[in-house]
Design a protein that fits this description.
By secondary structure, the protein is an all-beta fold. It has strands at about 30-45, 45-50, 50-55, 55-75, 80-85. The protein has a domain at about 30-85. A three-stranded antiparallel sheet has the order 1-4-5, with no helix packed on it. Strands 2-3 form a two-stranded antiparallel sheet.
Length: about 90
């Protein structure tokens, strides 16, 4: 598996540069994300006394979103380790 990113065309915005440390044939996991508010229900708008009252959030729940990367490096004789990444 190879992971490659290019910043040469200036369309890339790097927001995080995490590091992970593991040993030969030892699985390691890193999670990158945040907890964000998600609107779960909305009160419909109304018209009272000639004024419009737009819909507004009624219920808000928080949810974790992000990416989990799990790898198992295999160090062989070369300079570059092989990474085993589970599917799914």
């Amino acid at each position: 598996m190879g992971i490659t990113a290019s910043k040469s065309n200036n369309d890339v915005n790097i927001v995080s540069a995490p590091h992970i440390l593991t040993s030969d044939n030892e699985e390691a996991e890193i999670k990158i994300g945040q907890n964000i508010p998600i609107v779960s229900s909305i009160v419909t708008g109304s018209r009272r006394r000639g004024q419009n009252h737009p819909p507004r959030p009624q219920g808000v729940q928080r949810q974790d979103v992000g990416v989990t990367l799990r790898v198992t490096p295999q160090i062989s004789g070369g300079d570059t380790p092989d990474l085993d990444q589970p599917k799914g």
